[in-house]
Amino acid sequence: MFGFKGLMKTKTALLAAFLLTACAIGRAEIFEQILVKVNGEIFTKSDLEQRQIGILRQKGQQIDLKSATGDAQLRKALDEITPQLMVDVVDEMLLLQRGKELGYRIGDDQFKSIVDNIKKENKIETEEQFQAALKSENMTLADLRRNLEKTVIIQRVQQNEVMGKIGVTEDEARSYYDAHLSEFTSAPSVTLREILVSVPTDPKGINAAADEAAQAKAAELRQRVTTGGDSFEKLASEVSESPSKANSGLIGPLNLGDISPDLRKIIDAMKPGDVTDVIRTNRGYQILKLETKTQAETMPFAQAHEQIGERVFTDKRKVEYQKYLDKLRAQAIIEWKNEDIKRAFLEGLKQQGAGVSGDGSGVKN
Predict the structure, then answer these.
(1) Which pLDDT score is estimated for 353?
(2) Percent of the chain with pLDDT over 90
(3) How much of the chain, in percent, has pLDDT values that exceed 70?
(4) 263 shares a domain with 205
(5) Residue 259 domain-assigned (yes or no)
């Protein structure tokens, strides 16, 4: 558990933090408590509170600070989210700094284009509606631009520094295919049609006469579709007492692995067009017709090539992106001003499985 004692001294302060908007918090703070410096750039207590509030709101967590357990609930929630939050904060700062080193920025035309798309996607037709939408999010146009610029810069760094340098060779594609054949193999399946004759329920137990009548009706229907010349589909749509009646009794396709062993044994001995004997089920008496049966089929390598490339690329991207972040952290000067937050960061790295030794490469007290 991370105490964060220096960050939350009283219940009143906690309640105030939840009631204030993110922007209001930032503007109300005159004397900031610095938690960490990343290459000289600061991250403060109010920055942290702003992010914590945002995450808790996104999660929809309702914490009653007036109750006796309110403080404990909030501390538990913050202990859960703060480790990963601090890793994300440091990584974001490093990526933005790298993007600015590379000269990335968002131009006026690009910003206008993004805003126009936002308006279109949210059906915002007037400037008044747009300003009202910003106000409802406690944002100004400048706040929106800063947030968008962060996103654009980080995406460009990711694309140009990581993803743009990743390629997939034929040997890698073939190795992935051979090791993951099951991903490219379809399961055997069947499509059936059914006619159901239900047995009326009786609170006193099984009604033998009703059961015998239903069985006899099912046998008569089976005779009509096997030797009487009647269409199975037509009878299913007229007399079946199953919901599948609406589709002329059609069921499936069904994965053979999802079918009961007893029924699968029957189906295995059938070929398309065959009709089962009358089968007693918990719904009544059932007759099945096998429409189609497909065997397990493996997609050829050439046909699966595009899918393989995407999957190998995704796997490599995760690895290479993590390596890139590890490199940025190792090269950075990270000065911690709060031990609790430093421990949260290191715990976040541990949870993430990121490369870190001692108190963290590049991490300074």
Answers:
(1) 76
(2) 61
(3) 85
(4) yes
(5) yes
Mean pLDDT calculated for residue range 37-46: 95
Q: Residue 287 belongs to what domain range? A: 188-295
Number of domains the chain is built from: 2
| Same structural domain, 275 and 353 | no
Asked whether residue 23 carries a pLDDT value surpassing 50, the answer given is no
Residues 76, 81, 84, 88, CA torsion sign: negative
Which of 269, 295, 321 corresponds to the end of one domain? Answer: 295
CATH number of the domain bearing residue 279: 3.10.50.40
Cβ-Cβ contacts under 8 Å for 257 (sequence gap 6 or more): 187, 188
* pLDDT tens per residue across span 77-88: 889 999 999 999
For the chain, the average pLDDT equals 85
- Token pair belonging to 351: 């949870």
In a domain, 73, yes or no: yes
Residue 62 forms part of a structural domain: yes
> In the listed set 295, 324, 357, which residue is the last one of a domain according to the structure?
295
Q: Are 289 and 232 in contact (CB under 8 A)?
A: yes
Distance CA 87, CA 325 (A): 10
Q: Are 241 and 198 in contact (CB under 8 A)?
A: yes
Residues 261 and 349 grouped into a single domain: no
Query: For residue range 342-353, what is the model confidence (pLDDT) as tens digits?
Result: 999 999 999 887
pLDDT of residue 208: 81
Model confidence pLDDT, tens digit, residues 62-82:
665 556 566 778 888 889 999
For the whole model, what pTM was predicted? 0.63
Distance CA 195, CA 244 (A): 9
Strand partners, 219: none
CA dist., res. 117 & res. 211, Å (int): 65
Distance between CA atoms of residues 84 and 349, nearest Å? 8
Angle between helices 141-161 and 108-121 (to 10 degrees): 110
**Is the pLDDT reported for residue 360 higher than 50?**
no
